[in-house]
## 1
Amino acid sequence: QVHLVESGGGLVQPGGSLRLSCAVSGLSLENHAIAWFRQAPGKEREALSCINSVYGIAYYADSVKGRFTISRDNNRNIAYLQMNTLKPEDTAVYSCATDLRFVKGCLTYEYDYWGQGTQVTVSS
């Protein structure tokens, strides 16, 4: 059984930083893709960043490139999303996702396993 639990969300002022965590059980992040998404009220879910399953290469959406950094701790099986220079438009529920199958195109893949999400609110 694959299980993902996000944490680290909260209220932060514009320009601030947060680090989200995604603890994964049931598969090894070293051998599987991991991705971060967000969904704001009234908007579609947006893929933000991912690490592919073969070479561990990170990919980013243009909206977060240069501000967000994805990483993973293979020993602890936890993925992270470091978010810097946060803006009010970054306010959303942030979720992580993974899959047991080989993932090609980790930003556009339809993942099978999702966490429950963590709220990030950027406001003064």
## 2
Amino acid sequence: EMRLEESGGGSVQEGESLRLSCSSIGFKYSAHCMGWYRQAPGKEREGVATFASYGSESSAYGTSYADSVEGRFTITRDVGADTLSLQMNSLKPEDTAMYYCVAYPGCGTTQYWGQGTQVTVSS
């Protein structure tokens, strides 16, 4: 069974930081694409950051970010621990949302989603 488990959400003040983690369990693919999405109340789910690795034999990878988080958020992946992280600095109230981890095994079209972790930023 393949599943994702997120952790690290919470409530912080504007300007503070949080680190989200997503543990991938049961994934056997070497090439891997993963990402973080978020959804605020009354809004559509939006992409936050993506991470694409190109095989266990290669250290090459690519990342991308939404304009709204560029320079403040950093996405990383620990291959050995099968963990995807999102370091969020200089948080703003508009970052308040439920954050979801998503995986595309083998960078294909199949998607696996985590249950989400809540991030709340107060001004």
## 3
Amino acid sequence: RVQLRESGGGSVQAGGSLTLHCAASSLTYVYSAYCMKWFRQAPGKKREEVAVVDRSGNQQYTDSVKGRFTISRDIARQTLHMRMRRLKPEDTAVYYCSASYPSCTESSPDWGQGTQVTVSA
């Protein structure tokens, strides 16, 4: 299975910025063939899909982060990024990346261990 390792989390004040990274390894297929996603899970809440970049490079975002978060992938380095700007306290969560092949609707994606993002008011 794909090994995913997130990094870049931390604590920031509201209005600040962070960039998350997700390094992939042990790929069965070329990195660009995977659908890559960022999810987050806040305490007491369900895991929420935040951003998606599919194998064609198309991006999608949940409404609450549109205009503030940008997902991107470095195919050569097999790394997924997410630039988060104008952070809000409600963005506080553990952020996870996932990889699925060949589509974004696969039922059993591979997951990373998560990275904590804490936004203080």
## 4
Amino acid sequence: QVRLVESGGGSVQSGGSLRLSCTASGVTGTSDSMAWFRQVPGKAREAVAIINSDNHSKYGGSAQGRFTVSLDNAKNTMYLQMASLHPEDTAIYYCAAHNDPILSLRPERYTFWGRGTQVTVAS
């Protein structure tokens, strides 16, 4: 069973930066993908960034150019470096994983989920 634990959320001023971490346990093999999604109450879960064990990555439209996803395979930890944050980036950020190298932006493709970490960007 894969367990995902997010950390690094918090409050920041508009224009600031944050780095989120997601540590996975129980992940095996080299064909896994991990992803960041975010969700605001009343809205659908939105893909932020996806990366696989080969370090191929894909970004959702809102993250392109501002966020960077990375993976430390030795630590089974995925990071999301977020810069130039806007109040619109305020959401709960979730870590997700599935045993497939496909970089999917669809949340229903992911089997394992963390509990989320709150990011709040003040204007």
